[in-house]
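Comment thread on ticket #2218

A.B. wrote:
> Attaching the input chain for the structure job we discussed in standup.
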Amino acid sequence: MVAACGTSGKSDGTTGAGGASNAASAGATHGAGASGSSGASMQPAGHAGSGAGAPSSGAGGAAGGTGGPGAAGMPSAGRVGIGGASAGGASASAAAAGRAGDGSSGTAPADTGGEGGSDAGVTDGTPTETGLASLPAARQEHGVVALNGEVFVLGGYTPDVTPSVIAYDPAHDSWRSVADFPSPFNHPAAGVVDGTLYVMGYYAGTSLTGPATGRTFAYDPGTDAWTEKKALPSGTERAGGCVTALGTKLYVFGGGNSGEATNLASVYDTAADTWAELPALPETREHCSAYASGGKLYIAGGRTHTIPEFRPSTLEFDPEAKTYPPRTPIPTPRGGAGGAVLGGRLFLFGGEGADNQAGVFRDIEAYDARTDTWEAFAPMIVPRHGY
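C.D. wrote:
> Ran it. Output below, let me know if you need it in another format.
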């Protein structure tokens, strides 16, 4: 399922005043690859600095140096340069939770994931996949959101449908349980605004196909409690839609009900606790991902009706014009991918319906709305979907 990321701030794609220094440490190391030294870079909140370590021209450079501190004083891990060269890691300027800030205002609340400055989207090394603490139990068809520096995993199958909600702390590589959802649920549409987590439509109980419920709940991490909010309007209930936040509003695109994909689009105003219907998508879609960039919303991935019926199209939604102009299609169409925003790009991981024995994708691709381009990355070690 889609992981609805926090509110995405606007970014002009450039570094601000006193922007990234990109200071390279002096002197290349030859022979056996050596670690790059730290590049010092201090950025104002909302922009990512980059400190490039000394390149290592020998065989197999070692791990990159630590990037310089960001505005919140939180260095990031070094990146390993192409061809074995060591490079200092990007020092992502951060708000309280250590995520990239809003590129236009230079700040971001602790629960939001901004687009960051231009350096935050630069790939100058070799991405790596590292194992972390496993979930307490195997789980799928759940929701995932980022909230207050943690990753919340919502419901799904364990293998029975569960009401449990758990949170992962990246700083300590550990999991903890939080208050259960009011009922067992799967395929939730979920998002975060102003430090509150919202679930807006899902499949209740053991059903895989519905009927879906439009009930809406809000979770307050301060009180560790769920509160029911205004439900989706009658006739627009669905599960497995894609969600993104813009300001104090959460947008829900597509989703399915009773085994059929829909083209519904809705917006929830968290401040007023009200729903409004939007013009329908140009095609039915569920199991998709969405994100905000430059004041507009982008919908990618997903499928309709059956697993192999992929939706290759990428759509832009303009909240002012309320139109859906098409953008560059995804190179590897798939539904049920995991979605996350990093450096102003929407990353899609895995998915279902691959032409192999397992029927599950290993692909990783990222969409950048600023350039309307997709970039492919090395595939995941283990194919997966439904998260």
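A.B. wrote:
> Thanks. Noting for the ticket: The mean pLDDT is 75.
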